[in-house]
């Protein structure tokens, strides 16, 4: 029983690992275009700093990533975010405002005006949407919480998670839990109160590994559960009887799992491609730059800050990783990471490295009142395509992929283009798709 997995990001790696775990007699080959595994997960060690160019971590409230870490032995190095890092900021009228962490703190906070707060108090009385109209996050927020909450709460949230545009992303596709809460409880406030009384903790703490997120992907490769073929770009998947051939080579696979970004399907021939390729290529991946600085003095406290679009700044926000996790910076120095780009700022795709760094220094020094000579560049990272944006109609693209999966027996799909962009979403999907593949194989060889 042979399975080919295409794509060595967390989606492909964790799926390959789990297929072997469920069906030890299977043989899995994973093909990755780059030399190294990890995809978006990229941890860099430089001058005593530990820098994340992709995800900083995942939330411990969901089980899938923690369980994969346990199964592959990466759990010994798990680290949780420091308690002090729970303080987060939003920029309002040029000043950093603490994000309130409880209802009383919210009503005392300057994050919204009195009028904005009254709009929130009216939320339990807003009728849930009955028809099937697919709202953007902004439309949903305006209807239930008012425009000010959209501008100063939802806009930065969308920016922090998707580097996205609140007026374009689909609430149902991007935040299915929030969409569901309105349907189940009729109101977000009512849902919050009910869930609090049940002591349900949906999110948990930000969690990573002592040596950063790449520790997990390296552990998965090192587990020996599958053969990792780096620097192999798959260009064709061809059906031959009830088997598949990759790149015209002779090895026959019973099943193929695609775990690549949606734009990468353009360069691969695969069965029924014509039915889905337009949808796949319509998914936008805005660029992002991650610029990491050493801070010599006055490292600000907390987790970091996000900037609402209304503030008209040129950066998305910044994180303070050396406050979040221990051992991210040498003694006496702090690590500050500035994020730029996203769906509202495509121009960074065409900007030179020096221009982006200058912009990051200027903005962050102004916002944090740090003088420019107190911050030194440690590492610069830019990607032309960062996070897939789930606009309205995204569900139809996913349905199209699932139809191919049903009609071409043995083809399976996963990845952050379809089933959620969080690391937890990718690993939750890995459990589901690994089960489907192993059931398919068992059925085939029964
Ligand atoms: C800057 C940034 C910060 C983030 N922060 C967080 C965070 O804090 N928490 C969180 O939960 N999530 C975060 N995310 C999201 C999360 O990291 C990603 O959604 C997730 O890592 C995607 O994994 P994936 O395996 O689905 O895709 P990818 O990581 O994109 O992997 C796909 C792989 O397929 C390979 N590939 C493409 N074409 C081919 C081909 N033809 N043949 C072979 N291989 C191919 C690529 O080289 C790539 O390695 C962040 C994302 C970014 C960009």
The CATH architecture classification of the largest domain is: 3-Layer(bba) Sandwich
Q: What percent of the residues sit in helical stretches (DSSP H or I)?
A: 25-40%
How many helices? The count is 15
Q: Trace the largest sheet across and list its strands.
A: 8-7-15-16-17-14-18
What's the oligomerization state? single chain
Largest beta-sheet characterization? 7 strands, mixed
Kindly provide the radius of gyration, computed on alpha-carbon positions and rounded to a whole number of angstroms: 23 Å
Shape: globular
- Proportion of residues in extended strands: 15-25%
How does the helix and strand content classify structurally? alpha/beta
Ligands bound, unique? flavin-adenine dinucleotide
- Mean pLDDT equals 95
Q: Please, what is the CATH homologous superfamily of the largest domain?
A: FAD/NAD(P)-binding domain
| CATH first level of the largest domain | Alpha Beta
CATH domain topology of the largest domain = FAD/NAD(P)-binding domain
User: How many domains?
Assistant: 3
Query: N- to C-terminal separation?
Result: 12 Å
Low-pLDDT runs: none
Features:
3 domains, protoporphyrinogen ix oxidase, domain 3, 36% helix, five-stranded parallel beta sheet, seven-stranded mixed beta sheet
């Amino acid at each position: 029983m042979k399975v080919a997995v295409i794509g060595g990001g967390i989606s492909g790696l964790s799926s390959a690992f789990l297929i072997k775990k469920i069906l030890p007699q299977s043989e899995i080959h994973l093909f990755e275009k780059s030399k190294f595994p990890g995809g978006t997960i990229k941890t860099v060690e430089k001058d005593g700093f530990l820098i994340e160019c992709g995800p900083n971590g995942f939330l411990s409230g969901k089980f899938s990533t923690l369980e994969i870490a346990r199964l592959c032995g990466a759990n010994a190095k798990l680290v949780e975010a420091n308690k002090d890092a729970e303080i987060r900021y939003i920029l309002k009228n040029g000043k950093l405002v603490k994000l309130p962490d409880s209802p009383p703190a919210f009503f005392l906070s300057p994050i919204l005006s009195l009028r904005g707060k009254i709009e929130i108090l009216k939320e339990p009385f807003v009728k849930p949407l009955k028809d099937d109209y697919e709202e953007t996050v902004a439309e949903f927020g305006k209807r239930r919480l008012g425009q000010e909450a959209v501008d100063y709460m939802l806009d930065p949230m969308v920016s922090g998670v998707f580097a996205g545009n609140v007026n374009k992303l689909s609430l149902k596709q991007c935040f299915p839990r929030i969409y569901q809460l309105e349907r189940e409880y009729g109101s977000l406030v009512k849902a919050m109160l009910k869930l609090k009384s049940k002591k349900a903790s949906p999110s948990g703490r930000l969690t990573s590994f002592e040596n950063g997120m790449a520790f997990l992907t390296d552990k998965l490769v090192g587990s020996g559960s599958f053969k990792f073929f780096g620097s192999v770009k798959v260009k064709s998947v061809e059906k031959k009887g009830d088997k598949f051939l990759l790149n015209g080579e002779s090895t026959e696979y019973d099943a193929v799992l695609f775990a690549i970004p949606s734009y990468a399907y353009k360069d691969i021939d695969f069965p029924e491609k014509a039915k889905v390729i337009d949808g796949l290529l319509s998914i936008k991946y805005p660029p992002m730059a991650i610029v990491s600085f050493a801070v010599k003095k006055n490292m600000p406290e907390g987790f970091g800050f996000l900037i609402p679009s209304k503030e008209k700044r040129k950066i998305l926000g910044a994180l303070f990783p050396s406050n979040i996790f221990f051992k991210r910076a040498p003694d006496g120095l702090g690590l500050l990471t500035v994020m730029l780009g996203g769906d509202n700022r495509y121009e960074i795709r065409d900007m030179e490295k020096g221009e982006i760094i200058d912009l990051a220094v200027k903005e962050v020094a102004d916002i944090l009142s740090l003088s420019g000579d107190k911050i030194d560049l440690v590492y610069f990272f830019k990607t032309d395509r960062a996070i897939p944006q789930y606009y309205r109609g995204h569900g139809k693209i996913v349905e199209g992929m699932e139809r191919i999966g049903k009609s071409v027996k043995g083809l399976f799909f996963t990845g952050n283009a379809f089933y959620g962009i969080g690391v937890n979403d990718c690993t939750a999907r890995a459990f589901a798709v690994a089960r489907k593949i192993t059931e398919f194989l068992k059925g085939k060889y029964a």
